[in-house]
Each structure stands twice: as structure tokens, then as C-alpha cells.
């Protein structure tokens, strides 16, 4: 996969070189100064799945939401050890590998009148920006991707980033409506050029970023719920609409979670997430969680490591994610329909109360259980055991089920910060008194483009986190 990432960066460098052809006869056909849209789209989609959604920053968010644990001595990621330099690669993934290539794709496609490609570029730019700003808060954008200020760009306020996200999604939808003749095909790893699904994704992302601001300064939960519901009316409508990346499983083309939890890795699932599924008698336990290779008789086959413990246990006694998510050839579910239902349930709860949200909450559970192969009888049993929503438990239940449906998703970190669910507490032997609420700005950025806000610490809140 490193070879593919290097290829993406090479494309970006070639496109950005901007060199004039002083002597045409010296053009090297093996080092082109231009590439067609399909050669940009395919690798940037891979980068979004592999490095942005499944990279180290995403894994850190799983530590902070207590989904994973390291079988290592302390301190480590799970006990909130982090230095700025550890973010250098993640910042490069966001800007150099994703946003810069998406900008090039958009400009190339606009020049050629290939508006389906511009639509995809805008939608994926919105997703990438959303991922970045939710992790870091204020980030560069308006001056970051070209021009005289590209190397020392000013940081845009997070509120402005969110406005740009919505504008990008709106413009992407407009571009789809232009019905451009040229459609992506096999170069579109996500949807194979199905522009109706891209449009549904755009509306679903609009709803996601509307509901994120339900407690942001100057915004109201009711207004954001209205906007989210209006967007969802045109959003994802079934599990077939999931934004997912398929990996062949061959060497060099493995699912990122397979690599993250591969033999030799000291990362396993946490006791918190495994025990939560056990406590609810959730039939998805055996799908989401693999049985330990050598179970400890005291804990059974499904056993996660307690975060923050000093001892080093046997890796074979801990569980890792199940094959649906972590096989070498498994799909990587980047955005899924169940999330759309969770957003809808939350928005209806805000607008109309828990009774009105109940059927959508049940559909959320059903949609994910059906995708994971749970039988109708077990779904019914689980729904009965979970009970109905009430004034006191509704938001907690909705977010708990959303977390399960968004298994291994960075989105769970955002939902915990804005709702306080699921209920989490600082882990034992933590280096900080509170759970982190953001990532540190990278060291390379602090050196090359110093800004006062780069002194933010892990427990500082981003703008919308109120």
C-alpha cells in the first residue's frame, strides 16, 4: 500500500509542477505533466479509505472512545500519550494526498466539462474537510491548496469550514444534475460511477454535518434537526447505498483494519466495547468480534483488554474485530445507511420526542443487524430486550446503537463529544485527568506555519464541542 500512496503523491507533484514546455522535443513520455481524471480518482479514493478513514488518526479516535487497547507498557496511545510529531503523517495524508489531489481532479474535470468527476471531487473534499476539522478544529483551507499563501496559509475558523462543507456538497449535487456524458467506471472504487448513489451520499453527509452543530454556538438543535431531516429525505435509503471500499485481499491490497490488527500488532479490542456487547446480549457480538485464538478460561472466547493496565497479557487471549470488518478482503465501510437512520432518529427526537423516534430507532438496529447477517428472530428478541425509548434514555440508546453500527468509525468520537454518549470515563493510569477531545496540531506545521492556536492541547474543545 505504501507504493500506491507514493504513486498518488507523485501524481500530485507532477500536476502541481506547472513547468512551461520551453523545448517540446525534450518532453518525456514516461513522465507526463498531465493525467486524465480516472487516474486521479482511483488512487485518491483508496487514500480516503485507507489513510484518512483507516489511518493512525482514526485509530487514535478509537482509543479515546475506548474501542481498542494496546497490549503494551504504559504510557501509550490508550492512556493519552501523544506528541505533535506523531501527527505529521496524518496532516500530510489529509492535505497532500487527499485534498490536493481532489482539487486537481476538480480543476481537471471542470476544464474538460466532465461534471460527474467534479461532483465526486467536491463530495469527497467535503468528507475530507469534515474529517480534518472534527479532529483538529480550525484548519487551513481557503489559502491552503495553491497560490502565494499555500506554504503558510491562514487557518479558517471551524464554523467557516462547516459552511464550505455544505457549499461543496450543494455544488456537487448541482454538478450531478448536469448529466454529463462521461461517467466514471472501474476507476470509481466506491460506487462504480452510480451518480444517484453519489447524490444520496451528498445529502446524507449534509445531514451529518448539520446534526454536528446541534449544540454549536449560535445554532439551535431544532433548526439543525430540520435541516438534517430535509437532507435525509433525499439521502441513503438502504444498505445498498453504503459508501464502502472493496479490497481484493491480495498482497498490497488488504483492508486497512486487517493491517492494523494483523499478526504482530499489539492492538486489540478493548474490554469496554466487548463487554458492552455482552451486557446487552447483542447477537452481533460474534460478528463484530472474533473469538480469541487462545481464550483465557476466566474470560471466555470473546474478551477485550482493559485499557490502562500495567501488565502485558498474551495477545492470543484477546479478541480483535471480526472478519466482516477485518478480513484482508473485507469491505471498509466509510459511510453507512445505518448512520443515516441514526441521524434521522436523533433529529426526530429533537423535533417530536421519543415516541416519534422509536420506529426509526428500531429501523437503525434492523438495518445493521440485517447487514451483519443476524436472523429476523434474533433481531426481534434483541429489540424486545432493549425496550422502548423514553424521555430519559432516548438519546443514549440512539447513540449507543449508532456506535455499534458505525463500528471502527471516527464518527463515534464526534458523537461522544457532542452528546456525552456512550458514557465514558478516563482510563486507569491516564496521563490527563480528562478524555482527549481533539488531536494535536502536527510538529511540521508548527515549524513551517506557526499559529497561536497550535498550542491547543488534547483536552481543549473544538468550536462546536459545547
Descriptive report:
With 466 residues, the protein is mainly alpha-helical. It has a single domain, classed as Serine Threonine Protein Phosphatase 5, Tetratricopeptide repeat (Alpha Horseshoe), CATH 1.25.40.390. 50% of the residues lie in helices and 4% in strands. The strands form three sheets. The chain has a two-stranded antiparallel ribbon with strand order 1-5. Helix 6 runs antiparallel to helix 7 and helix 7 packs across helix 13. The two termini are 39 Å apart.
Identify the notable features of this structure and list them briefly:
single chain, 466 residues, mainly alpha, Serine Threonine Protein Phosphatase 5, Tetratricopeptide repeat, two-stranded antiparallel sheet, 18 helices, 4% strand
SS elements, strand count: 6
Overall average residue pLDDT: 93
What's the domain count?
1
Q: Report the β-strand fraction as a percent range.
A: under 5%
CATH topology, by name, is Serine Threonine Protein Phosphatase 5, Tetratricopeptide repeat
Which sequence of strands runs across the widest sheet? 1-5
Largest sheet: 2 strands, antiparallel
Low-pLDDT stretches are 1-27
> Structural class per helix/strand content?
mainly alpha
Based on the structure given, which CATH architecture is correct?
Alpha Horseshoe
Radius of gyration (Å): 22 Å
| DSSP helical segment count | 18
Amino-to-carboxy terminus distance? 39 Å
Order of helices and strands: HHHEHHEEHHHEHEHHHEHHHHHH
Backbone shape: globular
CATH domain class name: Mainly Alpha
| Helix proportion | 40-55%
